[in-house]
């Protein structure tokens, strides 16, 4: 269900961003996510006790929501929804590279192979898809990769800033992060509305997409994801990464009539294989090979 919801977010942004603009789409997404989470906290009567962690949570919101949502909205101006969904699957690859480069995480030969295959898959997607290679397409791909790099970095920062400091109710983490993302994007939204191109706000289907991506694909999805982490752990929860691309491609085909080439599908399979190599645990060495102590 979570993969279906997150896969649909690329469809909704593909509908909204060309009509409202990338900045407006990103801001409205986090704003309605913030409103939805506030309603949930109110209904559940959860106390707003951040235990001194509000500032780092808001900063995490900028890294984990504000910048990525803006990047995906920019990508949605030019890339089909299926492209963004496949590129989103590179999040664990980015996490592995950032962990190795900045957080003293070790990468085995298996994981390095996954990283190399991931780069190969991205190259195939960029050069053999249904969209002709151009500066705008490259910009869209780079925007998606910036978003996944932010996601990869945010995981380590969450461990350092929140988990290592005693943790916090996941509903409060989600709410605080969307508050930070909303405040971060607010000046850009204000400037765009006052000085940017004129936007036709009276388009019902675009508003329906904005409300869906905010309330369902962000607020509700965060709660489901954090619940998954609590129930089955972060490693197993990462398996949602494998399921998002098929759903993103399916929704784009069903609603927008997007088509995919064989080269694009091959690139998507390679990306999924590379993600599996990165996130799957290594097989334990049999005890008899380790010797006795």
Kindly describe this structure.
This protein starts with a helix and ends with a helix. The protein has helices at 2-20, 22-43, 54-75, 81-88, 91-102, 109-128, 135-161, 170-195, 204-232, 234-237, 240-256, 262-279, 287-290. It has 13 helices and no strands. Helix content is 78%, strand content 0%. It is mainly α and 293 residues long. It has one domain (2-280). The chain is globular, with a radius of gyration of 19 Å.
Summarize the structure.
With 293 residues, the protein is an all-alpha fold. It contains 13 helices and no strands. Helices cover 78% and strands 0% of the residues.
Structural class: mainly alpha
The description of the largest β-sheet is: none
Strand content: under 5%
Radius of gyration over C-alpha positions, nearest whole angstrom = 19 Å
N- and C-termini, Cα separation: 47 Å
**Number of DSSP E strands:** 0
Mean pLDDT across all amino acids: 84
Shape: globular
Number of domains: 1
Order of helices and strands: HHHHHHHHHHHHH
Unreliable residue stretches:
287-293
The number of helical runs is 13
Report the helical percentage: over 70%
Keywords: Membrane, Transmembrane, Transmembrane helix
Protein name: Transporter
Pfam families: EamA
Subcellular location: Membrane
């Amino acid at each position: 269900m979570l993969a279906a919801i997150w896969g649909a977010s690329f469809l909704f942004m593909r509908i909204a961003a060309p009509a409202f603009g990338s900045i407006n789409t990103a801001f409205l997404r986090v704003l309605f996510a913030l409103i939805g989470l506030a309603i949930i906290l109110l209904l559940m009567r959860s106390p707003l006790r951040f235990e001194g962690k509000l500032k780092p949570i808001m900063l995490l919101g900028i890294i984990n929501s504000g910048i990525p949502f803006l990047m995906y909205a920019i990508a949605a101006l030019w890339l089909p929804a299926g492209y963004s969904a496949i590129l989103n699957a590179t999040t664990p690859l980015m996490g592995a590279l950032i962990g190795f480069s900045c957080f003293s995480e070790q990468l085995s030969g298996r994981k390095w192979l996954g990283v190399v295959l991931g780069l190969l898959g991205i190259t195939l997607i960029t050069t053999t898809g249904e969209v002709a290679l151009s500066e705008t397409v490259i910009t869209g791909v780079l925007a998606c990769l910036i978003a996944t790099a932010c996601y990869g970095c945010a995981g380590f920062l969450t461990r350092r800033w929140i988990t290592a400091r005693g943790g916090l109710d996941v509903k409060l983490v989600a709410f605080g992060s969307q508050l930070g993302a909303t405040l971060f994007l607010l000046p850009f939204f204000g400037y765009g509305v006052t000085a940017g191109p004129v936007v036709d706000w009276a388009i019902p289907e675009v508003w329906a997409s904005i409300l869906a991506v905010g309330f369902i694909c962000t607020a509700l999805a965060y709660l489901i994801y954090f619940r998954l982490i609590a129930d089955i752990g972060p490693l197993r929860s990462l398996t949602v990464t494998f399921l998002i691309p098929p759903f993103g491609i399916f929704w784009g085909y069903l609603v927008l009539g997007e088509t995919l080439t064989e080269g694009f599908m091959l690139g998507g399979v390679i990306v999924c294989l590379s993600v599996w190599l990165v996130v799957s645990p290594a097989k334990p060495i049999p005890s008899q090979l380790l010797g006795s102590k």
